[in-house]
Each structure stands twice: as C-alpha cells, then as structure tokens.
Amino acid sequence: MRIIEPVGITPGMATFEPFQVAPDAEPLVVQVGQAFQVASLITNVPENDYPLWVSSKAYVVGDRVMLGHSNYEALKAHTNSSPTVVTDPPTWLDLGPTNRWRMFDDKVGTVTTNPESISLSISPGRAVDALAFFGLDAGSIYVRVTDPYQGIVFESQVSPVSTDGINDWYDYFFSPVELNEDFALLDIPVGSYGSVDIVIAKPGGVAKVGALIVGKMAVLGETLYGSSIGITDYSRKERDDFGNFIVVERGYSKRAEFDLIVQTSRVSAVQRTLTKYRAKPLVWIGEASYQSTILYGYYRDFNVVISGPTASDCSISVEGLI
Fold it and tell me: Is residue 86 pLDDT above 80, yes or no?
C-alpha cells in the first residue's frame, strides 16, 4: 500500500515568484544569485465564472459574483455588503471556489471543467514523485517533467480507459468504453526546482477533473487479498404513503478496509506516519492497477499486530472525500 501526501496548491501560486540562492547555502549545481521559479502554477482554465463583486453596485436576489477566487450568490437585495463579511441574516451564499480552483479544494465532487483540455504547468517548490486524479473525464493524460539543468526527465501519455473485462477481440470491439474516474501516476521524478506539465485532454468534449493531487509518495506495506471496498451513499430514499419511492440523488464517498503486511522493523515508522497524518487527507493506493482501491480521504482508524520477528499485520479503515 502507498500513500501520497499532497502539496498544497493555492491561488497565491498563480503568479511566478522567483527567489535567490543564498551565498552560504549548501553546494548546488547552480550559480549563486541565479533566480528560480518555484511554487507556481499556470493553467489554461479561465477564472471568469461570474462578474467581479463591485461595492457600488446594487444587487438583487440571485445575482452571482466572484471575489477572492470564490463564487457567491445574493440572498437579498443590497448594496455595498462584501461577500466575505458575515451578516445575520446572511447577505450572500458561498458557492465555493471558482472553476479554476475546484480541483484543489480537497473535495472530489466539485469539478473543474474546460472545453477540449485542462492544461497546467506546476512548479511545486519541493520534491514530488506522484500524481493522482479523481473525478476524471478525459480521453488522455499527458505528463512531462522538466528539470532546469537536465531538461525533460520524464514524459508520458496514458489513457484512463478501463480495460476491466476486456478478455478477447470481441470484448475489445463491442464492449462499452468506460473510463477510470480515479487514476494515479507513480514514480515521477520531480526535483524541488523542476516543473510538471499536465494536459488532461478530451477532444471534441469537455475535460473534467474533480481533484488533482501532486505529492510525495510513501510505502506502508503490501496490500493483501481480503481487503474490502465499497461506497457510502448520501442519497435519500424514502417511501410515500402509497409505497412509492421518493429518491433524492446526492453525492457518495468511497471507503475501504485495507489489510496489510508490514516489516516488523518498520512498525514504529508506520505508526509515526499514520499518527502524523491523522487529520490530513491523503491519497491511499491499495493497488494502482485497481481503480476501486485508489481513494482520497482520511483514515478512520488503524491497528497493527506484531505477528512475528520479520512480518506484522496491519489493518486500516479509510473513508473517502465526497
């Protein structure tokens, strides 16, 4: 089993901010005073969901505006009431982040969309080696990693099309095309000063991604057969007085019960790692080739049994984000 600790990507990264190498820094293959572009993001997704909020404008119920990379809807007629100021009763309804930033809001159900493709160039400012995509709707994913000194060090184009159940030529040609909505790319070499170019493409359609995770990977142990997966559905299903169902479809989250085998010598390290991330969402990968075992969320609890001098048993319960 592997986990990915996400690198925080915020609107403050949307502009390049160069820094200088200090003269007394550790030896690097760079010249003192050379500028770098770190912790930055460039994307082709526009931020034009709604007009910007204007303090002098008179708003009516239902008007929508943008402010501080979030969208808001007016709940009553007013003038000069900022959406970021809390009032009682409330003047504005917070609709969440703008389209550009929905893929980075720690939610899977809020989706960033763009015609044809979603293109990003990310300089994470720290070493990372894994990417994970959730709520994906695309025909292909292109990833290129560029080091400022060695040039292109990684380049790959993959298709998230599922091959589950494709066992012969008949299945290949006549089975319906299904996409892996959750997808992970591992062992990507990105140094602290490198950049990652990502293109989520859907020619002739609308590319979508619910969550994009860039981060550092760690190995906890080997996932065993016997692990279980499922979902928690938040839809409402009720019967009326005549016995008919009334269904209100809502979101759902993935969940899993992972059974692992870990090296006994690493039991304390595993406990420290899980304790460190007890209140932080992580990407959990039971087996990268099985979409159902890739989750983004929190662990509910874990238990380690020191079974022997070389190998120990571990169980982890994970609840995915909506």
Answer: yes
**Domain endpoint, select from 192, 219, 246:** 219
Is 308 in the same domain as 256? Answer: yes
Pair 267, 185 in one domain = no
Helix, strand, coil abundance in the chain, percent, nearest 5: 10, 50, 40
Residue 101 predicted with pLDDT over 60: yes
Residue 172: its H or E element: helix 169-174
Q: For 129-168, write each residue's pLDDT tens digit.
A: 999 999 999 999 999 998 888 889 999 999 988 878 788 8
Residue 139 and residue 286 in one domain: no
Domain assignment of residue 36, yes or no: no
The residue-averaged pLDDT of 179-184 equals 89
Q: Which two tokens stand for residue 46?
A: 């526009």
Exposed, middle or buried by CB within 10 Å (0-12, 13-18, 19+), for 264? middle
Q: Tell me, yes or no, whether 92 lies in a domain.
A: yes
Domain residues for 316?
Answer: 222-320
Specify the pLDDT at position 13: 64
For residue 299 the two structure tokens come to: 């662990």
Residue 281, preceding peptide bond in cis (omega within 30° of 0): no
Supply the pTM of this predicted model.
0.85
Amino acid of residue 319: E
Helix (H) or strand (E) holding 264: none
> Which of 97, 122, 146 lies at the terminal end of a domain, its last residue?
97
